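ABC transporter permease
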Amino acid sequence: MGSLIRSGLGWGGSLTGVLLFVALWEWGSLSYGSFLLPGPRDALSSLVGFADNGELWTAVWATTWRAMTGFAIAALAGVALGLIAGLSHTVGRALEPVSTVLLGIPPIAWIVLALLWFGSGSLAAIYTVVATTIPVAFAGAQVGARTLDHRLQEMGDVFRVPFAMRLWDFYLPHIVSYIFPALITALGVAWKVTVMAELFATEDGVGAGMAMARVSLDTAGAMAWIVVVVVLLLVAEHGFLRPLQKKMEPWRQVKGTAMPG
């Protein structure tokens, strides 16, 4: 019952934040006019129109596939390289400058290079996502591996703890607590970069829809596509990453639970 109440309060707080944002959005629309800032009802009307003509679902599928494919590649490669760099000082010193350089290059530059190398299409968008998100995943994994408590390793040596138990009970909880925040940040970057790449490099997807809205001066349509991107990000984060984080960090679920007397 207690966990149900806490869950309800958590959802209630999130809903309050959403309603506050919608209220501010409506106030801005009334203040500046629907042409400069269409209100929520205008965006919803455009969204319904996109859904009726089938454009919405085609765009959602294309953008989701590109964003999640690029994110998955970047997460796997970035975490693997970050763990190696965190455990090996030599490898870390070699890869850190590369990560810094990759992180410093703006996404628009990667899009231009991707267009030159791969031409327009999905590959350019996926490559841009990988190039911009892999340094984020790398940094989180590297810091997690580098800050491992060596006293736990010494204790494991003294008590002859099996390696599998050390990995699961000592090392993994610490590393995961750094990796998941980095992955959540990388996921947000992946969606934004995907839409930006689609704006220049593809003929379908949410970004392409925003490009068409810009050409036709359809401000309400542009706002509708922005709402779609935000919803997709929230679904990916709270429908995939957050549940996975809860499974990987079960010790956080007992936080606040009363200890038996």
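thats it. The mean pLDDT is 82. The two ends are 20 Å apart (CA to CA). bye
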